[in-house]
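Give me structure tokens for this 124-residue protein.
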Amino acid sequence: MSDGPVHTVEVPLGDGSDESMRVQIREVDETLVRVGRGGRSVVRAERSFAQMLDSVRPVAESFVGRFRGLANAPDEITLEFGVSLSAEADVVIASTATAANFSVTLTWNRNEAAASGGDPAPER
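Here you go.
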């Protein structure tokens, strides 16, 4: 991020309500629409937060789909990654200095019979 002045961006949630959230960013460009009174200005994003999140949704679905497709699929998948609001009022995957930061945790829950090598209890 640059060392430019901090601007407040109003982002509609896009969940069917008229609610919005305000975030602060350092860069502002022509894709944002300025609104406000007097010396106080708030920049309004043209896309809703829901639309912004839709741009990273395929990434999460790809991770989950690939791990669910394993021959011995995990019982639980935890995917963590950072997102940032860009100057273009878009959500982007945040990065460290050299790469995007994804953390994936896969969990397999074994039942006690399978863990001990015994036969599972018969189903009733």
